[in-house]
Design goal:
With 372 residues, this protein is mostly beta strands. The chain is 13% helix and 38% strand. It has six helices and 21 strands. It has helices spanning 2-15, 17-21, 78-85, 95-106, 108-112, 196-199, and strands at 38-41, 53-54, 57-62, 128-133, 145-152, 163-169, 177-184, 188-195, 204-205, 218-222, 232-235, 240-258, 265-279, 284-293, 307-314, 325-326, 328-332, 338-340, 347-351, 356-362, 366-371. A hairpin with a 5-residue loop joins strand 17 (328-332) and strand 18. The longest helix is centred in the N-terminal third of the chain and has 14 residues, at 2-15.
Length: 372
């Protein structure tokens, strides 16, 4: 009886998380801040001349990207829970973003459908995929796992694309996030998040997407509306390429809640899905999206694994894909530090037609797609 009562209290307290966590009113559609400088990551190649200006703005040189925070063992304090759950107002969705993500969700089953034979669709009309694959392992309930990447972007969209193209990455948790560079017809370019804890019906709460469920698993914002202090440039062997630094974590968390009666204290446990984006002004990882939920499965219920992929479905032949992919892929395994993806710990998947190839290839953490 004591255990059953404790479980009831745990559930009731977990349902109070929205009231415990949200202490600020999140503004929707705030105008992006205008930066007075652009950030450039210092190239490894010392022969590359560093620019004084890019896009008419002075350049600030950054020597290295800091790792995101790893796993933690101590309980979350209330202010830490608020910070983890509450994105900055300038990173919130607009009504236009929400409308487009509803449309994307309607077509999701078609976009992710990969079982049709090649003869059933025109060239590049199937689900075409290339990417880095990390073998998944069963997790313990208290494990924290993650992936972080530097993702080149095309914030003005892909000229002539008719269909959908994703650059997406996840982690090895069962109810992971997919953080996605999301491109579509009409020069559409979003940075979006697809949350599998919502699809799988896990009870929880998200400030960024309070209606998150199997019909509303998306969060996203136009790349062009994301403030410039979340973007940087790196040298991709030929030109200065604009990119995001992004992290994707599934963390075991616990926090202490004081109840309004003598000795009333309970430790509440759960799982925190977080998409983080590096703020180059502060070199801190800010919350882009997060959701706290219960009962993460120990093994993924789906056949695909933790990945950093580029995938697309085209309605009008093979698109002229810009140099999109990943500059850097690192992963966080249980009890280990952030680790660079290399051939010894990951594999590469290439399911694109023959008219594409890898370029800028440094297996398995730096690659993009190029036409032959």
């Amino acid at each position: 009886m004591r255990t059953r009562q404790a479980d009831r209290i745990r559930v009731v307290v977990f349902l109070l998380v929205p009231f415990l966590a949200v202490a600020v009113q999140v503004a929707e559609g705030q105008e992006p801040q205008k930066s007075q400088a652009v950030y450039v990551l210092r190239p490894h190649d010392k022969s590359v001349a560093l620019p004084d200006k890019l896009g008419g703005l002075p350049v600030k040189i950054v020597d290295a990207i800091p790792d995101p925070p790893a796993a933690r063992s101590e309980p979350l304090r209330p202010e830490e829970l608020r910070a983890a759950l509450t994105p900055s107002p300038e990173l919130q969705m607009t009504a236009k973003d929400r409308k487009r993500l509803v449309e994307i969700n309607r077509s999701l089953s078609m976009i992710r459908k990969s079982g049709a034979p090649a003869a059933a669709a025109p060239l590049c009309g199937n689900h075409e995929v290339i990417g880095t694959v990390l073998p998944g392992v069963p997790l313990q309930p208290s494990d924290t796992v993650g992936t972080w990447v530097t993702m080149p972007i095309a914030e003005n969209g892909i000229q002539g694309l008719s269909g959908t193209l994703f650059t997406t990455f996840s982690n090895i948790a069962a109810q992971t996030l997919e953080v996605i560079g999301n491109y579509g017809t009409g020069n559409e370019a979003l940075l979006s998040v697809f949350d599998w804890s919502c699809v799988d019906g896990k009870q929880g709460y998200s400030v960024a997407n309070p209606s998150c469920d199997s019909d509303h698993p998306w969060f996203g914002k136009s790349q062009g509306d994301i403030p410039s202090h979340y973007k940087f440039y790196y040298w991709d062997c030929c030109k200065w390429q604009k990119a995001f630094a992004l992290a994707n974590k599934s963390s075991y968390v616990h926090f202490v809640v004081n109840l309004p009666f003598p000795g009333g204290q309970i430790v509440v446990t759960g799982y925190l899905n977080e998409a983080k984006i590096l703020n180059w002004d502060t070199l801190k990882w800010d919350t882009y999206y997060s959701r706290i939920f219960q009962d993460r499965d120990l093994q993924p219920p789906r056949p695909w694994g933790p990945t950093a992929f580029l995938e697309f479905v085209s309605n009008s032949g093979c698109p002229d894909v810009p140099r999109l992919g990943f500059r850097e892929v690192r992963f966080l395994s249980p009890g280990a530090p952030w680790t660079l993806a290399v051939p010894a710990n990951t594999t590469m998947r290439f399911d694109l037609p023959d008219n594409y190839r890898y370029c800028l290839f440094d297996p398995n953490h730096t690659w993009c797609v190029c036409p032959k």
